[in-house]
Design a protein that fits this description.
mainly alpha, 82% helix, single chain
C-alpha cells in the first residue's frame, strides 16, 4: 500500500468516526430515524465527494439537504417530534466528512467532539434554564461577551508599570468562573446541607457569605451555631479557591501556596467536625439559604477588577519600601478581598517584580487577613457573641499560618 492509498484509508476511518460520534448521541432517543450507521455513511459521503472533486461535492451536498428535509418532515409531522436538531446534525456530519476529505483531520475530530458534547448536554441546558432567572441569563450573556469578544482584543502589555489589561481580565474570568460554578450548584441544591451551602458560598464570596450568615443569626438566635459552621466552611473553601487562582496565573506559585493553604483549610475542617460532632451534636443543624450577588454579572466583575487594580497599585508602592510594607499591604488587602490580593501578588511574581517566595508569603498573609476579617464582619453584621465563636477557628488558622510561613518559607 502506497502513501496515497494509506491516506485514503485513514481518511475513510476518520470520517466514519466523526460521523459515528454524532450518530451515537442520536441513537439515545426513543424513536430513531437516523442513527449511527446513517451518520457514518453521510460523513463518508462527504469525504468521498471532497476526494473525487468539487462538482460531486456540490451534488452530494444538495442530495444531503433534500434527505435532511425529508428527515425533518418525518420527524416533525409523522412522528410529531418537534425539533430540527437531528436535521442540523445530519448536515454537520456531511460537513465533517468533507473536512476530512480535504485533510483537516484534527479540526474535524475536534469539531465532532464539541458538537457531540453540545448534543448530549441538552438535559444540562434545560436544567440550567430552569435554575437561572431571565436577568441572570442576560448577565451571563454579558459576561460571555467579556470572555469571548473583549478579552481577545485587549493589549497584553503593562501600563504605568502596574496594570496589564489582559492579565486583569483573565483573573476576573478565572475568579468569576469558579464563583459561577459554585453559584449554579448553590442555586440547584437550595439550603440543603449547611456544610455544602457554606462551602459553596466561600467559593463565590466568603465575605458576603459571612455577612449573610451573621445577619440571619442576628435575626434568629437559633441559627447562631449553624452560622458559625457555615462561616468556618466558607473560610476553608476560600483558602482552596485562592490556591486555584494562584495556580491559574503561575503554577509553581500555586503549588507552593497549596502546601500552606491546604493545611490551613484542614484546620478549618477539623474544627468544623469538632463543632458538628461534639458541640452541636444534640442540635438539628439545618441549611441556611444564602442570597448572594450574581458572580457572573458585569457590575461585580468590574468591581473585582477595580479592587484588583487598586491593590496592585498599593502592592507596587509597597515593593519599593521593603518586605515589611509588602506584608502590611497584603494583610490589609486581605481584609478587602483575599482573591484580588492573591491574584495581584502572584501576577507580580509572574512578571518578575517580586520573587515567588515573597509573593506566596504575601498571598498567605492576605488569606490570614481575610480570616481575621470574618471575625470583624460577624461582629458588625451579627453581634459580639457570634464574633467570639467565629474568632476561635480564625485565630487558630492565623497562628497555624504564621508557623507554617516560618517553617516552609
Amino acid at each position: 500500500m502506497n502513501a496515497l492509498e494509506a491516506e485514503f484509508v485513514y481518511s475513510l476511518i476518520i470520517s466514519a468516526f466523526v460521523g459515528g460520534l454524532l450518530g451515537i448521541e442520536r441513537e439515545l432517543k426513543e424513536e430513531v430515524i437516523a442513527g449511527v450507521r446513517t451518520f457514518m455513511l453521510v460523513s463518508i459521503l462527504g469525504m468521498l465527494s471532497a476526494y473525487i472533486g468539487k462538482y460531486y461535492l456540490i451534488l452530494a451536498f444538495f442530495a444531503v439537504i433534500l434527505v435532511s428535509i425529508l428527515l425533518g418532515h418525518i420527524k416533525n409531522y409523522k412522528l410529531e417530534d418537534i425539533g430540527i436538531t437531528t436535521v442540523v446534525s445530519f448536515i454537520l456530519a456531511f460537513v465533517l466528512g468533507t473536512m476530512v476529505g480535504y485533510g483537516y483531520y484534527l479540526q474535524a475530530v475536534a469539531s465532532s467532539v464539541v458538537i457531540t458534547t453540545i448534543l448530549v448536554s441538552k438535559r444540562f441546558f434545560i436544567e440550567l434554564s430552569k435554575t437561572l432567572t431571565h436577568a441572570e441569563i442576560m448577565n451571563a450573556m454579558e459576561f460571555g461577551m467579556l470572555v469571548f469578544i473583549i478579552y481577545p482584543l485587549l493589549p497584553d502589555k503593562m501600563f504605568f508599570d502596574v496594570i496589564n489589561p489582559k492579565t486583569t481580565v483573565f483573573i476576573i474570568i478565572v475568579v468569576t468562573g469558579i464563583s459561577f460554578l459554585a453559584f449554579l450548584t448553590l442555586r440547584k441544591i437550595g439550603s440543603t446541607g449547611l456544610a455544602i451551602v457554606g462551602a459553596l458560598g466561600g467559593a463565590i464570596n466568603s465575605e458576603a457569605t459571612t455577612s449573610e450568615l451573621s445577619s440571619k443569626a442576628k435575626v434568629d438566635y437559633k441559627l447562631r451555631n449553624a452560622a458559625v459552621l457555615g462561616i468556618v466552611a466558607s473560610n476553608s473553601v476560600m483558602l482552596i479557591r485562592n490556591v486555584i487562582i494562584a495556580s491559574s496565573i503561575m503554577l509553581s506559585a500555586g503549588i507552593l501556596m497549596a502546601k500552606i493553604n491546604i493545611a490551613l483549610a484542614l484546620v478549618g475542617v477539623l474544627y468544623f467536625l469538632y463543632l458538628y460532632l461534639f458541640v452541636f451534636k444534640k442540635e438539628q443543624i439545618k441549611g441556611i439559604e444564602l442570597k448572594l450577588p450574581m458572580p457572573f454579572a458585569i457590575i461585580p466583575a468590574i468591581r473585582f477588577g477595580a479592587i484588583f487594580t487598586l491593590i496592585s497599585i498599593f502592592v507596587n508602592l509597597a515593593t519599593k519600601h521593603g518586605v515589611g510594607s509588602v506584608y502590611i499591604t497584603a494583610f490589609i488587602s486581605g481584609l478587602v478581598s483575599s482573591a484580588a490580593a492573591t491574584a495581584s501578588f502572584i501576577s507580580f511574581a509572574a512578571s518578575g517584580k517580586i520573587d515567588i517566595a515573597s509573593a506566596v508569603s504575601a498571598s498567605v498573609v492576605a488569606c490570614l487577613g481575610s480570616s481575621l476579617g470574618k471575625v470583624l464582619i460577624s461582629a458588625v453584621s451579627g453581634d459580639i457573641d457570634l464574633s467570639k465563636k467565629v474568632a476561635v477557628p480564625m485565630i487558630m488558622k492565623i497562628v497555624a499560618g504564621i508557623l507554617l510561613l516560618v517553617i516552609i518559607m
